[in-house]
């Protein structure tokens, strides 16, 4: 065990259950293809990093997938909404003795190992690091102690999440990373021709 933990939240890649907003434009099968490409990209980026890593699945733990059991611990998300599930994951990490904890999603084709390292390094001098997404949410959240307010009273999946989160953290020293593009809609996908060409 080292002092840093990277948590990845993923959905089980099942037809009709992932990227539902994107699927309205390109169909369920193409949306599933895109999501699998995003999962593969995220796992490839994380393979390069020597920190401890855990994947939290939404529905059921998959054994033979992009996340090799030799590199990634595997757990199941617990909680009624995204906030509860993230809080539970952070609490578990801090209870186990980790000093710096990052959580990321699996919707970011622009994710790089450099970005993750920057977010961890920021926690040397800042209380929180946040990677804002262009849709008003965030793609990364880093903490060195639990801030429960961040996980409560949010309309998850809307453009108010980042603004409300920063309001909760106004007493804290927050490092904002580069704003990047989560892929949730066809407009998002159009910014990545290399993905669009795969469907």
Structure, described:
This protein is an alpha/beta fold and 199 residues long. It has helices at residues 20-26, 28-47, 82-95, 113-122, 161-168, 186-190, 193-196; strands at residues 4-10, 52-57, 73-76, 100-104, 128-132, 138-143, 174-176. It has a seven-stranded mixed sheet with strand order 3-2-1-4-6-5-7, sandwiched between helices. Helix 1 (20-26) crosses helix 2 (28-47). The protein starts with a strand and ends with a helix. The mean pLDDT is 95.
SSE topology:
Layout: E1 4-10, H1 20-26, H2 28-47, E2 52-57, E3 73-76, H3 82-95, E4 100-104, H4 113-122, E5 128-132, E6 138-143, H5 161-168, E7 174-176, H6 186-190, H7 193-196
Parallel strand pairs: 1-2, 1-4, 2-3, 5-7
Antiparallel strand pairs: 4-6, 5-6
Helix pairs in contact: 1-2
Briefly characterize the structure.
The protein is of the alpha/beta class. The chain is built from 7 helices and 7 strands.
Helix count equals 7
Main-sheet strand order equals 3-2-1-4-6-5-7
Main sheet summary: 7 strands, mixed
Structural class: alpha/beta
